[in-house]
Amino acid sequence: MTEAIRDGYQVSSEGAVRHWEIPYARLEDATPTPTMPAAVLSRIDGAQLTGTILTVDAGDSMAVIDFTCSMVYLHTVRNVLTYAAEVEATWGAINIGDPVFYDRSPTMPAGTYLSTSPLDNLGAANPMFGFVVPAPSNTTWDTDAADFPLGDATASTQTVAVMQMGAGAGAET
Q: 103 with 128, same domain?
């Protein structure tokens, strides 16, 4: 039996790249800035679409966000692990492979939206953003892997490469 060639489908020439325009009003941070992480509002704590802001259009109050699964961007990450009485309580060194979360806690330093804490300062689930990975050098094939772990058991904010979960995480093959 001969197999029929199907032509009733579409294939993106961009592959799995996912850049979507999202209204500011649907974002955790309603004043988005390019290159910063973003989380789309959701009815369920911790179950949110996350990605990296590419551009903003203040006139239309829209942000173009990269939700591509496995895309790697440099982000600042707070090394907080837990909160107690709504303030940071414990911290730990950041290492390759550590999970990174979009943290809504008001105790986060200005311009920092990511942490290593699965819960925010009120005990609600933070959405998973991605994982710490080695950052490639701009001039060699080397990475910064030898620099890890970063920070220690005191409060700090580190700039690390984060492989984002994005849209469709787990569905990619």
A: yes
